[in-house]
Amino acid sequence: MAIDSKTICQIAIIVEDLDTVAANYKKAFGIEPVIINIPGSDSVPAYTDGYQGNYSDVRLAIFKFDNMVIEIAEPDKKDSPWRRWLDKHGPGIQHLGFMIPENNKEEALGTLKETESELYHAGFYPNLTYTFVNCFEAFGIDFNIKWKTDNAEKITYMTANPEKSFKEILTEL
Questions:
Q1: Cα within 13 Å of Cα(118), Cβ side
Q2: For 49-78, how does the pLDDT look when each residue is reduced to its tens digit (9 = 90+)?
Q3: Integer Cα distance of 73 and 169 in angstroms
Q4: pLDDT value at position 33?
Q5: 79: exposed, middle or buried (C-beta count within 10 Å: 0-12, 13-18, 19+)?
Q6: Which of 10, 17, 24, 64 is deepest in the core (most CB within 10 A)?
């Protein structure tokens, strides 16, 4: 089976100095970035290795091109998927993002598992779920598999139960 997407919607880059790199992209492409911190777990619950974390100290510069988004992340010193990547691989491209139909999520993640690639991070926006899959050994880069879905009920439950593991949440919802 295959991942039901033929379009890369995002390239994510991790850097040590967001301001300098963002200024270079702005100068080169004439695009004004949106600079934000990742939303906190009280509004966008996210899980790494099965447990909820708060990654609101990770800064992002988002550049919207006509055909995709380039997202540049500067992690703080705390443990996070972005900090782990930077510490292990150094600055550079972390993942490619693919938007898939919601009904393809199990197949897509199963296909990647067949390549010995493992999901390690998932985040839940009100209308979008995203997942980081460690594909580095198989593809030389990680993938971010995303799908649009209504997460309102999940978010309410997750934010009320931050101590529960992702597996516990899945069995209870």
A1: 4
A2: 999 999 999 999 999 999 999 999 999 999
A3: 28
A4: 97
A5: middle
A6: 10
Of the pLDDT bands very low, low, confident and very high (cuts 50, 70, 90), residue 171 is: confident
**Residue ranges covered by each domain of the chain:** 8-172
Q: How far apart are the first and last CA of the chain?
A: 27
CA–CA separation, 136 vs 139, rounded Å? 5
Contact 69, 83 (CB under 8 A): no
Query: Under CATH, which architecture does the 8-172 domain have?
Result: Roll (3.10)
User: To which residue do tokens 């909820």 refer?
Assistant: 52
pLDDT, tens digit, 9 for 90 and up, residues 98-155: 999 999 999 999 999 999 999 999 999 999 999 999 999 999 999 999 999 999 999 9
User: What is the mean predicted confidence (pLDDT) over 147-173?
Assistant: 91
Q: Determine the Cα–Cα distance for residues 146 and 123; give it in Å rounded to an integer.
A: 10
Return the number of other C-beta atoms located less than 10 Å from residue 158's C-beta: 22
What residue has token string 């997460």?
A: 151
